[in-house]
Amino acid sequence: MDEIRLRQILDAYGARPERWPEAERAAARALLASSPAARAAQADAARLDALLDAAPAPPAPPAELAARIVAAARPRARVVSLRRAAAVVVPLAAAAGLVLWLQHRAPSPGRASAADLALAARLDDVATPSDDLLDTSDAWAADTTPTWGCATGELGCPDLPTATGRQSRRTTERIPV
Known about the structure:
This protein is mainly alpha-helical. It has three domains: 3-54, no CATH class; 61-106; 110-177, no CATH class. It contains six helices and no strands. It has helices at 3-13, 22-34, 36-54, 63-105, 114-123, 131-134. α2 (22-34) packs across α3 (36-54). 5% of the residues are buried.
């Protein structure tokens, strides 16, 4: 044992050898018997022990203080557990929402959903305004520019003024259901 280790023992356990670790006690006593510097360090530790022993004990904290500390610590634990739960639940909920949305958006082939059938029954037929665009005979004439819009306001389309007063031609084409 050296003086550095003896000082560590004296700082941690005090000057009384019965408090020192049992495995190092014999080596520490041998060093004290042979070294005046080690005996001076033990004397310093003994004075510190005497001062600490003479100091009055701090008063015991009130019982309600412990209860308030415990009560104040509990909400923090709940917040942490809620954050951990949210870190797991939110991604799972987002994934479930995506799966449900994809199920709704892409019905299985050959089966139309009730919403699709209701929309098809309401529309009845499809109007395609591209007929005039495909007709190239007078496509560049200023007075025959095709207009986009609804022929009627049935579906909530606004009545738009047209340059030629013409609307796109309607074709009757059934939506396969």
